[in-house]
């Protein structure tokens, strides 16, 4: 008899292309994954992988079995849910992916809201960047929905059947050390900030390229003193006077004292926020979640700045 655990492991090996990657995903060692695949090959009497010293290559049989296994595992989950429902044990769950700043500043407010509590649903959360969570929205994947953003004109490549739900925009702001003595909300020219050191995204990411382009078009070619993709860390560094930065509104929800937000002429950037849902996601929970997200995003999230003493 086929072992469902072995089928799930096969699906991940075929999808990710290695025993090690599948093991990391499922919580097994590469050796344990290899042993499961050997056991599955013996049960089926079919060779599933061409093994070499440094790689494994799924055979056509493995590819076909992997596709069928996705459907079988989904049906097993549905059967289990049906059995729990009959016994009054069913727990409705939304499996959600979310990028770090929305998970930090928006999700806690939603989960504490009476309207969400009234759904009696639980949340299974995976925090990661859009490129990490979107693939799990495919049919038979690990997620029902994902909170994502994208910056600039290029969108995300979505699995088949995924629906997009518009949530709003998350504008970026220039932030400066309050120790510079510049008033909150000031509108500055490029010449007034051109000599400042800057904290920017880690080079190589699409977001970093877009930010560099925006600054370049404004005539800013900053002296970079730190690289960070963690906006909380960036704001802390700004607060102690290390340099200026460009950060999104969501990250300003708990900005530390010592950070001043300003506008710089010619510097304008916004990221778009979406909830993506897979074709088999629980529609009512997705609708409720979209409504809560939109409500939370329209509330003021920015913490109050420290008053500057003249």
Automatic annotation (TrEMBL):
Q: Which GO terms describe its cellular component?
A: protein-DNA complex
Q: Please report the stretch or stretches of sequence annotated as the HTH lysR-type domain.
A: 2-59
Q: Specify the superkingdom.
A: Bacteria
Q: Name one GO molecular function term.
A: DNA binding
For whether the record's keyword set contains Translocase, the answer is no
Q: Which SUPFAM superfamilies match?
A: Periplasmic binding protein-like II, Winged helix' DNA-binding domain
Q: What Gene3D superfamilies would the database entry show? A: Periplasmic binding protein-like II, Winged helix-like DNA-binding domain superfamily/Winged helix DNA-binding domain
Q: Which PROSITE patterns match?
A: HTH_LYSR
Keywords from the UniProt entry: DNA-binding, Transcription, Transcription regulation
Question: InterPro entries from the entry?
Answer: LysR_HTH_N (IPR000847), LysR_subst-bd (IPR005119), WH-like_DNA-bd_sf (IPR036388), WH_DNA-bd_sf (IPR036390)
Which family is it part of? Belongs to the LysR transcriptional regulatory family.
* PANTHER family (UniProt xref): LYSR SUBSTRATE-BINDING (PTHR30346:SF29), TRANSCRIPTIONAL DUAL REGULATOR HCAR-RELATED (PTHR30346)
Mind telling me what this protein is named?
A: DNA-binding transcriptional LysR family regulator
Q: Which organism is it from?
A: Neomicrococcus lactis
